[in-house]
Specification:
Largest sheet: 2 strands, antiparallel
Strand content: under 5%
Number of strands: 2
Structural class: mainly alpha
Shape: rod-shaped
CATH class of the largest domain: Mainly Alpha
Radius of gyration: 34 Å
CATH architecture of the largest domain: Orthogonal Bundle
Distance between the termini: 144 Å
CATH topology of the largest domain: Arc Repressor Mutant, subunit A
Order of helices and strands: HHHEE
CATH superfamily of the largest domain: Winged helix-like DNA-binding domain superfamily/Winged helix DNA-binding domain
Number of domains: 2
Helix content: 55-70%
Length: 132
């Protein structure tokens, strides 16, 4: 009789241990999901913090310095070329018409290229009035 009682107690202990383990595993899964959500929220907060400013910097760079390669833009902005590509994609989604010239440089269509030594057009001398 004692053996049957011990087996019953062992079975009850095993069931209780299994239930406790299952509850712990469910809690771990909940915490992991919360952690992933928090990581995404932090990542989004960082990108939203820098995103608009970075996009505006890239737009200003293309407007003011003319066609630039992705590597030149990365150097000017202090980011990687992969990030430049992401910024250019975001700028396109904002409605800017980004093109690539034959040299692989990016520019915003409709904005004249800027050159280092742009000079204003020379003024024509005033026309001499005919003397009579």
């Amino acid at each position: 009789m004692k053996k049957v009682k011990d087996q019953t107690v062992d079975a009850m202990d095993s069931n209780k241990a299994l239930e406790t383990l299952e509850a712990a595993m469910a809690r771990i899964a909940e915490l992991e999901a919360q952690l992933e959500f928090a990581k995404k929220a932090v990542k989004n907060a960082k990108s939203n913090k820098e995103g608009p400013a970075r996009k505006q910097q890239a737009i200003d760079l293309l407007i003011n310095k003319g066609p630039l390669s992705v590597l030149d833009m990365a150097s000017e902005l202090g980011i990687t070329s992969k990030n430049v590509s992401s910024v250019l994609t975001a700028i396109r989604h904002m409605g800017y018409d980004i093109h690539t010239n034959g040299a692989g440089q990016k520019y915003i269509a409709g904005i004249p290229a800027v050159t280092e030594a742009e000079e204003p057009p020379a003024e024509e001398p005033p026309a001499e009035e005919p003397t009579e």
